[in-house]
Amino acid sequence: xxxHKVKVSLSDSQPFQxxxxxxxxxxxxxGASLAxxxxxxxxxxxxxxMMPNPPANGEDEVFDLGSGDVGILNYAYAxxxxxxxxxxxxxxxxxxxxxxxxxxxxxxxYYHEVIHREFFKTAISAAxxxxxxxxxxxxxxxxxxxxxxxxAVLATAKALEDTGVxxxxxxxxxxxxxxxxxxxxxxxxxxxxHASAIRSLINPDSTNFAGDDVVDANGLDVAMSPAxxxxxxxxxxxxxxxxxxxxTS
Amino acid sequence: xxxxHFLDHFTSDELSSSKEQDKKSIVSRRQAFSQLGSLSKKxxxxxxxxxxxxxxxxxxxxxxxxxxxxALQLALTLEYLxxxxxxxxxxxxxxxxxxxxxKVYMQISKHESAHVDFLIAGLGDNVVDKPTFDFTAGGAFxxxxxxxxxxxxxxxxxxxxxxxxxxxGVRAYKGQAANLMDAPDLLTxxxxxxxxxxxHASEIRRLRGLKGWIVQDNRGAGMPEATQPVYNxxxxxxxxxxxxxxxxxxxxxxxxxDEPLSGDDAVAIASLFIVS
Lengths: 249, 276
What we know:
heterodimer, A: mainly alpha, three-stranded mixed β-sheet, 2% strand, globular, disordered N terminus, B: mainly alpha, two-stranded antiparallel sheet, 54% helix
């Protein structure tokens, strides 16, 4: 299989927007046939090789996020794992010349996203009867992202936060439990506060905190389906998993 | 519908009675909200005037009032308040021209105005009247320097009220989410407004020198005591059985989650600024 690794373009103001990823052409979106991670990152020129092969035995079975609310919780857990991992790397080795304000914001985001990650791990574990239904710890690869470069770090943070907002906004309607919907609501507004703050750090004297690139003419923020979100977030996720059973409407 | 009448009847009890709605009203509601979903696309494509006329074919009768409609009415009332506030703030001359603050206020004003139009269009016959607002809250504030408090004090109050309104908006929309579950298109739209309010709140707070997120239930430096109800109940550290203070302490744990406001509490806050 020929490796075809897609990287985020940091010079693109909207690196995560649906439709910009050239991987889309390889994937049948809609939730029924979505694979992510290692499988997805090895997208092939031959369509027949797109789907994961059935595991030869149970040992290396590819994890599926699951169905219903558990599937959505695992989906959110995957995104929070990504955000937490990213900010942990930022926090452990801040870029040179970081201002006190930037350090405070990025430290808070590291705290918040690790808390979100650990929360989902606990909440999902409590919701399922079999711990095998809890998404395992994922591994990530940021390609050639330069964590010592301020602009690269902040641009990636912006993309991750905007993606988080769009993901929760899009997933709200797929949740069937009012309690989980409320939890998602409690988290998404903090993600939006993050997105605003990061955008404000990048362009302080501007309207970018709630820019016209993310808020439409009706004053509505972006909402994206899990299929579209996983397509773009998957660029950083190297652990294979599938999302074949998520609710789609 | 008279705003006071609406506010008087806006209680959590009524909202939670939605489960008793019969199937017929749920069907009519779904029709109305599916139109809202398509409406948003139409509005984005063309600058057509928005209003109840677009919903003439799917009138939802007052007697079939249900929780999604009431949630939307509360949202519209809060958006009326924010829209008029930012409009008057920009007209007052209190916001210094050419500054970051002016750009921020103009952008937020644009969004709040769009939210009003969007919700009016979505509510159709169930639209609530715009209240008469008093942003001095009976003389407690003078955010537009109409009573001679001075530009500097007026400006500080103007920023403080903006923070209070945005943080209230975030919490109030969140409190209504469960009431919109039967209307997925409306829930999505409400979530899309909700996160925009959170973006606003973060920027206004940062303009005031605060963190973009709420720490414990602190209203923050320079916030009048009258705004404390906006923050009461935010110091929660247990989320679905998980102690969010465990990793990095209670400040970080509470910052990482915004808490909902009940309809009653949101109405009580808004009512401070409503004359009639």
